Amino acid sequence: MIESLHISNYALIDLIDIKFHHGFNVITGETGAGKSIILGALSMLLGARADSRVVSNPEAKSIIEAVFTVDDYPSLKDFCRREDIEWDDERCILRREISPSGRSRAFVNDSPVPLSRLRDVSLHLIDIHSQHQNQLLATPAFQLDIIDTLAGNAPRLKEYLTRYNALREAVRRLKVIRVKIERSREDEEFTRFQLDQLDELNLQKGEQADLERERDVMANLAVIKSAIAIASGAINDDNRGAVAMVGKAIEACDDLEDVLDEDDNIPARLESVKIELADMASTLSDMDENLGADPGALAAIEERLGAIYSLCHKHRVDNGDALVDLREALRAKLRALDSSDYAIEELEREARRAKALAKETAAEISKARKEEAERFGKRLTEIAMPLGMKNLRCEIRVSPADMSATGIDSVEFLVAFNKNQPLMPVGATASGGEISRLMLSVKSIIASRMQLPSIIFDEIDTGVSGDVANRMGLMMSEISRNIQVTAITHLPQVASKGQHHYWVYKEDDDHSTHTRISLLDEDERVKAIASMLGGAEIDDTAMAAARNLLDNQR
Length: 554
What we know:
Elements: E1 2-10, E2 13-19, E3 24-29, H1 35-44, E4 62-69, H2 74-82, E5 91-98, E6 104-108, E7 111-113, H3 115-122, E8 126-129, H4 140-151, H5 154-186, H6 188-201, H7 207-219, H8 221-236, H9 242-254, H10 266-290, H11 295-315, H12 320-338, H13 340-384, E9 393-404, E10 407-416, E11 424-425, H14 426-429, H15 432-446, E12 454-458, H16 466-479, E13 484-488, H17 492-495, E14 500-508, E15 513-519, H18 522-534, H19 540-553
Parallel strand pairs: 3-13, 3-14, 8-12, 12-13
Antiparallel strand pairs: 1-2, 1-4, 4-5, 5-6, 6-7, 9-10, 10-11, 14-15
């Protein structure tokens, strides 16, 4: 339930702190006193659009904060934990701040949240029912939701939605592969032509790089052979080559046998260098012999590389390795095309299985809807008829519909208010007052099933009076046995049914007018209801009538 409401610097409200109570609360006041302002501020917590014009003092921000008792609402607890919203097992605090510039900030339990998140949480906490929202009764989605709520279809709908989404995914995949295969079949001949070209080339990974290195060597053969000759000469020239010079060094060391330290081992080390140099000279000699000038071989390499470059350009790839990858991709594409009939058959079987499962759950939901629709139609007629609609007839029609996210049914509320009137959709035949009374009857029926702490009725009794107003007040009082009810009303018959009565009024100071609200005591309440009965002049008759209304309620 709403435990308290704080409003500051909002329109005519400089500061209001309201404590609410369990059961049935009523709010009354003269027209223009500010009841709609309080309701508008509360609507800010439901995500209504912020407007800087409501900020009365441009030097401060406007703040609307509501504290809700939530010690027995597991659905809200699960939602907050699922959405990573800080949770308190006893209270939930919603706050909206509007700066003079119009910038808005939202908080849940003192943690900043996006406005959409504030709206999601508030929908679990409060239902503000106004004349405008009465039109919901004529919408198919709302009608379907009422029947599902009363039928207890939530678990079945959750399972169905899972299966329906699986069906949609299976159908999507089937459609995608069909389009893909169709395009592949259109390109099959060209794909096989491309693969034949790549197979004919028979390229291997790394081959292009090897050929380019070999071509570079052969193209620079004279330069390479000259460099080999110079290197070989420097190592193996008979007079001045490195091998000869090391040999002379070895001979000289023989004369230094008595002088050289044996630990230095210089003669042996020189012998090792001589052997290593001789091996280098042999390697260079073999390389020189292998580098034969074969113009035919160079031409063959150039031709092979030309074929590779041509296909790289044709297929818009960087190198031969990418051509090898493309060849394997084309081969895989054709293999998939060859087995496409089997793939489609398998996906078709999967789609049929998913559809059968979805239809199975949808059929259970449909059965529950039809059973509940019959019960609800009778119950709605029984409850609404005493509200000044003695000839009311209601039929809740559940008809087959194409499979969708809500099942395989469409629901339509059909009503007739006169004996000679055919049943017609509620939106096409009911007046505003009739829809208000029907909606109140609906709320009365579903109140015990609503996982909702609080509901506010905003002048839902407009356009009625006398016994009908009395019955509507009794109905709201009955709803308050299950959830907290707050009614904004102009009717004394409704106001007298409340357990707690709040009075909204205006008060002037030296500079401006302010909206105030106060909880009335017993005597104040008698006067307030008397003023609703007798107008500006409150006489003894009006006071007596007010006491009588309150005594009857007790």
